[in-house]
Task: structure prediction
Amino acid sequence: MPVVMDADRIGRTLTRIAHEILERNRGIDDLALVGVRTRGDHLARRLARGLREIAGTDVPTGALDITLYRDDLMRHAVGPQPLVRRTEISFSIDERKILLVDDVLYTGRTTRAALDALIDFGRPRSIQLIVLVDRGHRELPIKADYVGKNLPTSLEQSVQVYLQESDGRDEVVLQQGGAA
Amino acid sequence: MSAPVTMRVEEAPPLTALRRKDLLGIADLTPEEISLVLDTAEAMKEVGERPIKKVPALRGKTVVNLFFEPSTRTRTSFEIAEKRLSADTLNIAVASSSVVKGESLADTALNLEAMHPDMIVLRHSSSGACHLLSRICRSAIINAGDGMHEHPTQALLDAFTIRERKKRLAGLKVAIIGDLLHSRVLRSNIHLLTKMGSDVWVCGPPTLIPADIARFGVRATSSVDEAVTGADVVMLLRIQLERMEGAFFPSLREYFNVFGMTDARLRRAARDVIIMHPGPMNRGVEIASEVADGPYSVILDQVANGVAVRMAVLYLLSGGAGDEAAA
Result:
């Protein structure tokens, strides 16, 4: 199980992305972070802390659960439904520049679902995509605006992101024979 | 993305899916399944607070609301829940159906089945009607109240409302007062609350207390004061005049005088008591208006939470039992 990112590397990567956000958006005005559950929301909160350290202002931060928007939800004739978690977006996304945060970008289907879900909350001025790892193999025309690490993978492999908040450690691991 | 699964050997992992075809009653549910429905309902409640109160989860699914008894609240609640999940809904009420022409419940259901609905929400005056449909229908059956048997979604929304206010169910004293004999809400609530570890007291006129009630792990009394003392939750049940054949108590006025919930009676309850009623209320019979509209009342929260809980049930059942071959 090769570790492709350790805790230091993840920390430095998020700091770099925070700087890129400020550079690209020329400041912090009208920005808001929305993390895709269950690990994108932790990353979004870390980026919010990073942005506050650099720019001295708080960026509104929310969490989005995309389960009810999944494109495979009703495709299987019989099978238990995936667990739904709470979406928490306590601010209006209208006219904001939304920074959508996910841990791994793979087929793009999660991002597609997240875009649909966000649009139901309002009409943001723009949506930018931040991912910690881009592992390739896109099935939809989706591209990240900020990438922590480009990681070439085969379809048989799986990428697992472990974060302190949910898993007790910070690590990105490339596994052979994907369990998922 | 795929989530890493961490499993500890000594304890079972938390339940993530309801592997059932139907929801017929609370009696067959485990505490873990009940918790899963309540947790899912929390996520569903947030959907109802959005500007666009609709998610595509049940797109393309057809749900039939088959109501053989009058109901406004439950039917409307199911219909809103179905629409918020993007299901196609069809309402069949008894007065407009072939039932008045003499068709049996089974025939009605089989005819509906021929049109391939995915779920049937059934309200019927006979206990066990849902079990009958569950055996003959491929569609998922959701019990919206069957006779004097069960009303599972009501008990789930009651539990959701209690948990929302009290943050727990275990260890709470819950006093349920009213017509215990004819109440399916009572039966479902007793199953649910005792499974979740609440201390359940039931109270009503001796003529309206079922003889074997103690078998369900509750304490029965005809003293309202005893039931209410220290109670965290006081739930009033409707006096169901339409189900009463015979004289169970002398008059509605006397019932109110002895059992009706008033501010004075409530003083014995816990200071943060909540007052619940499944509706429709008979004001001045089982509950005084001062209590129904008072600061401790969560009666309208129950109605609001009903939609979220029914969305959770519809969503969780839409996956099916999980162990069948693909249909």
